[in-house]
Amino acid sequence: MRRPRRVIAVPAVLLSLLLTGCAADAVAGTSDASGTTSESTTVTAGATAEEVLAANADVHEVADAGTATGTITLDGDTATSDADGVTVDGSVVTITAGGTYTISGTLDDGQVVVDAGDAVVHLVLDGADITSSTGAALVISSAGSAVVELADGSVNALTDATTYADADVEDAPNAALFSTADLTLTGDGALTVTGNANDGIASKDGLVIESGQITVDAVDDGIRGKDYLVVSGGTLDVTAGGDGLKADDDSDATEGFVVVSGGDVTVAADGDGVDAETDVVVTGGTLDVTAGGGSGTEPTDETSTKGLKGSASVVVGGGSVSVDASDDAVHSNGVVSITDGDLTLSSGDDGVHADVALDVTGGAVDVLTSYEGLEAEAITLAGGDITVVASDDGINAASSATGSTEDAQGDWAGPGGESSGTASLTITGGTVAVDAGGDGLDANGTLTMSGGTVVVNGPTNDGNGAIDADSSPSVTGGTLVAAGSSGMAMAPGTDGQGWVSATFDSAQPAGTTLAVVDADGTVVATFTPTKQITSLVISAAALTAGEQYTVVSGATASGEAVDGYTTTGDASGATEVLTVTAGEHTAGMGGMGGGQPGGGGQGGGRPGADG
315 lies in a domain? Predict the structure, then answer.
């Protein structure tokens, strides 16, 4: 079941996609408050980080600026230099030639400006503290490329003005450290950047952070690269009144991406934690994001407060990601692909949301708290370890159709209130544990399973079910355990492997170990629910269709447990509850095989102003 919310119209190009798990392609791009999407790249569901990055623009390499050119010594309200390519006009220092310059000292109210044409400029900050009352502290207005190196052991600071004298000039600087050229930050020193007017660090081209201890506190975006932002090392601590890490080029489909491949990054943002116009890619390092005050804060329609947001894709292929977001923890208007890494997610809305497709083939995904855990139109779970806690649907494969609406219960429905039924939930491997207050596994279309282990501790109210699909689920392999209420209970179809379903006249309390025992008295499965249940469905290779099994209460589980499920145990002394025939429904299983079609719904959660 899904609560009523504003419905976002989905672009026709997405509606036209044939969504069949890993075969799905998504055309994704920029998104505004109305949900319209501009044309961008084609991203294949299940794509690896390497594939996504290979399709994007090349990241710049650091050019050689040559040998040391000179030094610049800052001294209160003026400066001196031994380099021919440096001029000093009061408290403004201008570098007009390429080369390597070491800057030290304090500039109380001034600027360092690089205006070197197409030359490569390498700045070494060695105890430099620059404050400006009129604009940016360090400006690279022209250069072929620029490097800011933090000298080993040095402590440096850049602080801009609260208002800029040239704020009305188009393309004027808008960050304490601002560059119009490709910019690289490196070195083993420390840098504190205070953005009092807008951003902390910004580049109009590409921005790469290789190393350093960098602290940014900005009233708007923390660190922004237009073409791309790449963090490959260092320790970053970013506090932002807008977005934390950002790439915002919307004119080139191969640009506008954010990559975290190393380092230790902490972001606290009032807006999105990481926001990419195209792709967010994480392959290494540690990324800890708090967005919009965290999962306990109610988001608004005025500001997008998602954790990781990529309009085309979010791909995690390694590293450690922790997110606490008031809106979706991980969000894409296109696809989300998780192939490796560790994700720990807390969300006020969806743990992971993709408009088009979500693929998990490896790694670990732990959704600690959410409204809905995993949501996309095509969900494929082929590997990894997934744990979901959701107050509503645990895993929701929901159709996104132009003009679709939600019914009175907040469930997704197609035009005219009919379920569109184009969504798919496909499970071929991995381990999945779901704790859901609404539907456990919800497919507004097809639900197929051929491998893996899935355990659902589902709803306690009869308006939802541990399984909810438009047609009988097809389970041909793996292990499926679905427990919860019985009002909307659903079991697999008869075309797959054996399964048993039981409806209990008396609710079985949480913590009670139930066992399925064959005719020879052998325990073939045990399950200990975390909630009170009146329905239990188990499908496993050890169950044979047509044979009778006894369900007992008060058994003892043994062996390795998967979220309360084991394959062995001791039923001696247990109380017989009922006898079931594998592949047949027990009496009283009202609604079996039907449930409530459309019990989930897309809608994209509680969207912010930019989706």
Answer: no
Structure tokens at 94: 């201008």
Q: Please say whether the beta carbons of 35 and 12 come within 8 A.
A: no
Q: How confident is the model at residue 535 (pLDDT cuts 50, 70, 90)?
A: very high
How far is the C-alpha of 59 from the C-alpha of 232, rounded, in Å? 12
* Spatial CA neighbour of 264 closest among 193, 324, 214, 314: 214
- How many structural domains is the chain composed of? 1
Residues, the chain, total? 611
For residue 421, is it within any domain?
yes
Print the domain residue range for 449: 384-602
For the sheet containing 548-553, what is the strand order?
A: 565-566, 523-527, 514-517, 548-553, 575-581
DSSP state of 6: P
Contact 543, 524 (CB under 8 A): yes
Contact by Cβ (8 Å): 329, 352: yes
Class of residue 532 by CB neighbours under 10 A (exposed 0-12, middle 13-18, buried 19+): middle
Residue 12: Cβ within 10 Å count: 9
**Confidence class for position 11, pLDDT limits 50, 70, 90:** very low
Residue 311 placed within a domain:
no
* Per-residue model confidence as pLDDT tens digits over 306-356: 999 999 999 999 999 999 999 999 999 999 999 999 999 999 999 999 999
DSSP assignment letter at 492: -
Dig out the tokens for 120 from the structure: 């490569």
